[in-house]
Amino acid sequence: MRKEYQFDYKKSKPNRFAAEMGTDTIAVILDPDVASVFKSAKSINNLLRSVTASLPVEAEKNFDYNEFISDLFRALLNLPGSTVKKLVTKTKNKTNLVKIEDNKIFVATEKDFDEFKEIPDHCLKTTFNELLDGMWLTQNRLKKELNVKRSAFIFTAFDLLPYITYNHDLNAIKMEKG
User: What does pTM read for this prediction?
Assistant: First the structure.
């Protein structure tokens, strides 16, 4: 006898993994001998991540990191302002001041307007790599699990690109392929 676990991210608490999988509902069917191992949505999420990680990614569009970063810099440079640009975050409508110098991005938040801090390349690259799977990436996961600094700014900046979609309800971004 198999058990079916169904989660709807719009209605239930264990919703995060369905949202991260990029679907409204995920049904997980487990053999009863195995089902007792999964005590939470997090453990099911880990199983789904390991399974989907081994699946081939559709390559409708080849995303190259250097090309992506060039697009991001272009989008940021097109913001209003001379050398210092303003960008308002998605979640809390907080203003970030943005400077680009020597192919690096510097941001000053409302907390520290007097000090511009560099956005480390590894934070941009980590976010980019997570988006390659075509699933929703939540800001919470980016900040807490992947340890990416300035995640609110990164979300807002990435959303300037035409192939990145932001979902306000999930506070998540997704890279559209093709």
Answer: 0.63
